[in-house]
Design brief:
CATH topology of the largest domain: Glutaredoxin
Number of domains: 2
Strand content: 5-15%
Order of helices and strands: EHEEEHHH
Number of strands: 4
Length: 142
């Protein structure tokens, strides 16, 4: 299995799930700006034309995208790890929370952090978000 990821991206959740499951996985870092796979210089868009991480290539070569879908796949593929639930309402609740995190929670956390239109003087921006924004901007200029 190959997991394409970028640091500071939501692909971290998939990496954690794969570690917890004890899955044999190749972790392939993708540069979020150039879309180049760091280990071999290949164009990540050949794997995922949208260029978004996480992207999982399964052992049989199928490509799966979107964190919620990949997390559910990992939970199903490694049931002994206890990462998910089987079916019924519990499965629907798991899906509900994964979607909430992916759409609402990430937006609430990362918009103040990454949106250039949100100023540091905005009272809704926490001190930790200001610090992280400065750090990300400094790192991206290196």
């Amino acid at each position: 299995m190959d997991l394409y990821f970028s640091p500071l991206a939501c692909s971290m959740a998939t990496r954690i799930a794969l570690y917890e499951a004890g899955a044999e996985t190749n972790y392939l870092e993708v540069d979020p700006r150039t879309k180049v796979v760091q280990s071999d210089g290949s164009d990540f868009r050949q794997v995922n034309p949208l260029g978004l991480v996480p992207t999982l290539r399964t052992d049989d070569g199928q490509v799966l995208t979107e964190n919620a879908a990949i997390l559910q796949y990992v939970a199903d593929r490694f049931p002994e790890a206890g990462l998910g639930t089987s079916s019924g309402m519990n499965r629907s609740r798991l899906h509900q929370w994964l979607c909430f995190i992916g759409t609402e929670l990430h937006k609430g956390l990362f918009v103040p952090l990454l949106d250039k239109m949100v100023s540091d003087e905005d009272e809704s921006v926490s001190e930790s978000a200001k610090w992280a924004r400065t750090r990300l901007q400094n790192d991206s200029q290196k």
